[in-house]
């Protein structure tokens, strides 16, 4: 089959790789009909190379059709399914508590990491990813989300990651009707965080340096701001001088305005893997501008929610601010299946309350994925969300 493979820093290529096979009774194989490029994939493309091997198949936002179902998979050939990016058993101590991203059955204990993820480095199990024609789905008796036949893929596809990640982020920010929410970063996750905040009745402020991203958020009732030194003061002025009740950092480790962190990333990228891997595991190498801005902006007694991925173990944190302002700080990989009952009715609603129809800016054949990665990273051609079609011809 054809699949997108990691080959080095800022280098991916479509290669022919072996077809996946059933390996356990609760496995399934799907033919991928749509698979998206995530902002987290760009961390592999740019920063997390020390944990990748040339030839690794990447991608973790797929949906498709079951073509082979193990006898214990609870699936049948032909089922249309969305596959969550986290791999969980659904029955361990953590899963019983809805903490599916901490599944004890699939935890990557070698690296002290949580549940395995599709296509996301040695840190998360080196499981072959979903930017491919076919995908093996472990624990298919629990993970896959069966969906209907009437709506196009893009209405369901983002149940794999974007929508539940955004929903959890807003829940962790602890906002609702009449509250104020700020979202740093208006990529796909930030766009949906902002729209979910609006759906729940909050006043939402969106911050991003890219005009096209601000314009998309503005179409959905979000008050938008460029990322400048004056932004936090302007939002405080709009919230009676206090700041918003909750803030979501939807940017993560590659934030703009973090020159020292950027230099650290570039230095690590030049080292051999034997040196760079332990440095990434133990050092503080994240770009923290968005996180520090979030902590500065949130009102006293408010909540900051981290949905952007961070990778450093010794990042400097403003502990005085955290303590003095009585800030709640919540973070973590999304527990996808915990939120599907809330989200499935919204994506199937004919009124499209979350504006899912207005998120994909580019749909391209799988063969064109390398160019799409470069376009997405450089934010060219108004690119906000790319969906790859493994069945389309270039």
Write structural notes for this entry.
- The protein is an alpha/beta fold and 394 residues long.
- It has 13 helices and 16 strands.
- The protein has helices at 39-46, 93-96, 153-157, 162-173, 188-199, 211-218, 231-238, 259-269, 273-282, 289-297, 319-324, 340-348, 369-378; strands at residues 2-8, 11-16, 28-37, 56-57, 62-69, 80-82, 134-137, 145-146, 180-184, 203-207, 223-225, 246-249, 303-306, 328-331, 362-365, 386-389.
- It is globular and about 60 Å long.
- The two termini are 16 Å apart.
- The model is unreliable at 257-265 (pLDDT under 50).
- Alpha carbon gyration radius: 20 Å
Count of DSSP strands: 16
Specify the number of helices: 13
Question: Which structural class matches the secondary elements?
Answer: alpha/beta
- Global mean pLDDT: 92
CATH architecture term of the largest domain: Alpha-Beta Complex
Name the overall outline: globular
- The tally of domains stands at 2
End-to-end separation: 16 Å
Main sheet specs:
7 strands, mixed
Which residues form runs of ≥5 with pLDDT under 50?
257-265
Domain Alcohol dehydrogenase-like N-terminal: 25-144
GO molecular function, one term: oxidoreductase activity
Cofactor: Zn(2+)
Keywords: Metal-binding, Oxidoreductase, Zinc
